[in-house]
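Hi support team,

I submitted a single chain yesterday and got back a structure, but I'm not sure I'm reading the token output correctly. Could someone confirm the output below corresponds to the sequence I sent? I've pasted both exactly as they appear in my results page.

Thanks,
R.
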Amino acid sequence: MSLYYLGIENLLLFVISLELDYSDRTKGYSLVYGKAEKWKKVAELYGKSKPSRGKGNKKGAGVDDRRPPDTTKRLLKNNDSTNKKNLPQKYQSYSHYKNSCYITAPLEMLYNNYLHKMDWWSNNVGILSNNDSGLKKLYSSFTIRDNLDHFTAKKSTLNGAREMIRLHVVEKGWQKDGEFGSPTLWFENVIAEEKSSLKLLSHFCILGLRMWQCESGHVRIAPIPFKPFTPINGVEDFDSPFFEVHTSLIGQISAFFLEKNKLINRIRPDEPCQHSRASTKFTNLCKCSKRKINYQEFVISWPSTLIFEITQRDGDIYNSSDNLDFPLRLSYNEDDLELIEYILTGRVYSTSSSGVHFYSKIIRSFNEQKAVLNMMIWMEG
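Hi R., thanks for writing in. Yes, this is the structure output for that exact sequence:
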């Protein structure tokens, strides 16, 4: 009779070992060969490995005599949680320091853009030989952050990635240490440092031409200023004849974007002739008193990263931007030619009209499509 019970016992232990193997498999653990068979370990744990080498039962309640443990401590004895990993509970971002929100809020969005355009940053910015370049320091800051393990990242390392940019702004004299600053001024200066490289400028700046012509026939042609921000004023930019007819589209950024892709042709009734302005520098030019100007502007090339700056001030009056509608995608396709399409990746907000504090909201996940080649960042302040 004892042999019968012993056979049942060993069979039960073998089944337990199979259950443990199955549990390991479902968790992704590999079953490594060359070690002791797991059923033998289980048998040894419960007091028997083979009838000829039994260790015998121990007295007293506990795991070894196959009775339930007496205490919670014994139940949790083998519960090893050291190898458990949990997903990050929050997105680690640049922390503020010395009123640096005007830097860290745009940095947050630029880093998100970097994640989508790593190849461009690596092939065009990472190869810059001037390590004192603000754009090169941005790249270094992003790579430091990108290589961090969210589980073991040290706060000092993240602070160092921020300080690399903040100290550059202070050392260049763009802002005094500890003072509130503009989220657009420092980045404009960073891009201006690369004014000799059209490849770098064209990634952030619109390339286009402007033309002024007075009634006397004086003409001046000049490029659109190289600035990484495309300004939008919710009042002035929607007072064109197109929006006077299509009033329902006022505030729609998609309609504004389509209009920007067309030739801008306006009459400025009271503006000095550009020829007259030039004569103040060159005395050999005659002055022109005409003040009615025909102004034209057209875009030649849109940047890969399009950044809107919402300027809602009209003198001392602040106009809320709540009536501006930003879609998740902006697109333009003229006569079925090459598609221009941007996707929204983030925004910077100001807590007040005076820009006391800035913070950002970003979009970290969306459907990737090969047709979408350009990323978009929108700024509001």
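A quick pointer for reading it: DSSP finds twelve helices and twelve strands in the chain. Let us know if anything else looks off.

Best,
Support desk
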